[in-house]
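Below is a filled-in request sheet from our internal design queue. Each sheet records the structural input a requester submitted and the sequence that came back. We keep these sheets so that new team members can see what a complete request looks like end to end.

REQUESTER: design group, bay 2
PRIORITY: normal
MODE: inverse folding
CHAIN LENGTH: 234
BACKBONE (tokenized):
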């Protein structure tokens, strides 16, 4: 199955995801672009995103990693809209972070509880471990390649070491690798909303040799972010 066929058959599905996020984006876009029509800007971003979909890297259609790639496409579409308004990469990163924050906080309590439990469920962890081994076969050039790290029983429940990042590869192919580092802070929001407890000392997007995720259910969050994002993250 090639990329065009996969994303072509799923265009309506992924545009629906975009529309869900866009509802949260409108009030944020209004603040970032005063005097502009936020609905029109998001309409332009949707068109950008739709045009990007056929070119997103096919990585087998498996979730959640395909969704990671799809959301990276949303980020690039938002960046192009921001660029057209004279905005910087840093502004795109801040805008995306605030949109993600609104979107995640609007999720229902039930969804939040399910997501909180899912990340530590035996079924999910078994699947994650299996796919980690499969990722080293590098069947799909644009895929993520990672190791599953068993927990030590004290400081973390489990970890994931990414040696290749599909989002970084895609953004690099589009000439905007510098945008990748602004995806990483969103992991803080996921950890806050779903109580995942994340520690991460390095990322590929910021020049590290890997991304070293360590999850501790209910634990603290210790993640470095680009300087321009520190005022948002706190």
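RETURNED SEQUENCE:
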């Amino acid at each position: 199955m090639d990329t065009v066929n996969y994303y072509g058959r799923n265009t309506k599905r992924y545009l629906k995801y975009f529309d869900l996020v866009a509802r949260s984006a409108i009030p944020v876009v209004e603040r970032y672009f005063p005097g502009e029509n936020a609905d029109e800007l998001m309409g332009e971003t949707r068109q950008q995103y739709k045009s990007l979909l056929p070119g997103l890297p096919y990585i087998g259609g498996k979730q959640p990693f395909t969704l990671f790639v799809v959301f990276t496409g949303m980020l690039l579409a938002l960046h192009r809209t921001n660029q057209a308004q004279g905005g910087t990469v840093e502004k795109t990163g801040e805008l995306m972070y605030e949109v993600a924050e609104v979107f995640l906080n609007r999720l229902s309590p039930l969804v939040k509880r399910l997501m909180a439990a899912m990340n530590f469920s035996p079924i999910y962890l078994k699947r994650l471990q299996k796919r980690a081994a499969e990722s080293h076969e590098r069947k799909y050039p644009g895929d993520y390649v990672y190791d599953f790290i068993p927990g030590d029983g004290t400081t973390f429940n489990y970890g994931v070491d990414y040696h290749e990042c599909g989002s970084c590869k895609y953004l690099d192919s589009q000439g905007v690798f510098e945008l990748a580092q602004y995806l990483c802070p969103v992991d803080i929001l996921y950890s806050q909303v779903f109580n995942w407890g994340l520690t991460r000392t390095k990322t590929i997007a910021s020049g590290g040799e890997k991304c070293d995720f360590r999850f501790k259910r209910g634990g603290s969050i210790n993640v470095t972010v680009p300087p321009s994002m520190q005022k948002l993250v706190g």
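SHEET NOTES:
- Residues 163 and 210 are 5 Å apart (CA to CA).
- Residues 3-233 form one domain.
FILED BY: M.R.
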